[in-house]
Each structure stands twice: as structure tokens, then as C-alpha cells.
């Protein structure tokens, strides 16, 4: 019977979950979401312009040219290429 719930750990876990919940709620703020969508549209336009000039561009070149992270460049490149294939 020596095993049981450690109230200190349980309280810390609850506090951590409440803090995480507040963080997630701030990210889903509609005004922030609109700003993000506007920024993403603008970035997609810049990537599309770049690809018109250099259709064979890869993610590292796009990253360097537009000042994006490699991960961001890879995402945008794949997204735009996928969208142009389905159009």
C-alpha cells in the first residue's frame, strides 16, 4: 500500500497543463490568425514570383534568396508545387 499519488507532482502537472492551455489559447486568437494568414499569402506570392524566374529552384536556394528557414522554404515550395499540379 506504500504506493499512491504524489500530491506535489499532481499539482505541478495540473499547473503545467493550465499554463499550456493558456499558451495554446493565445495562439488561436482570431486576430493573430488573420495576421498569419496575410503573411503566409504574401510569402506564397514571393515564392511564386521567384519560381517563375527560376522554376528549377530548390529549397536551399529559396531559403537563401528570401531569408526563410530551410524548413519554411521546403514547406512553401512543396505547397505551391502541389497546388500548381492540382490546378
Strand tally is: 0
What is the terminal-to-terminal distance?
65 Å
User: What is the N-to-C order of secondary-structure elements (H for helix, E for strand)?
Assistant: HHHH
Any idea what the radius of gyration is? Answer: 21 Å
Specify the helix fraction band.
over 70%
What characterizes the major β-sheet?
Answer: none
What ranges have pLDDT less than 50 throughout 5 or more consecutive residues? none
Mean pLDDT: 80
> Structural class, from secondary structure content?
mainly alpha
**Tally of alpha and pi helices:** 4
- Using the alpha-carbon principal axes, give the shape: elongated
Strand percentage: under 5%
Provide an overview of this structure.
This protein is mainly α. It has a domain at 30-86. Helices cover 80% and strands 0% of the residues. It is built from 4 helices and no strands. It has helices at 7-27, 30-53, 59-66, 70-86. The longest helix has 24 residues, at 30-53. The radius of gyration is 21 Å and the shape is elongated. The N and C termini lie far apart (65 Å). 6% of the residues are buried.
Outline:
This protein is mostly helical and 87 residues long. It has four helices and no strands.
Secondary-structure topology with pairs:
Elements: H1 7-27, H2 30-53, H3 59-66, H4 70-86
Helix pairs in contact: 3-4
Looking at this protein, list some descriptive labels.
87 residues; 4 helices; mainly alpha; 0% strand; 80% helix
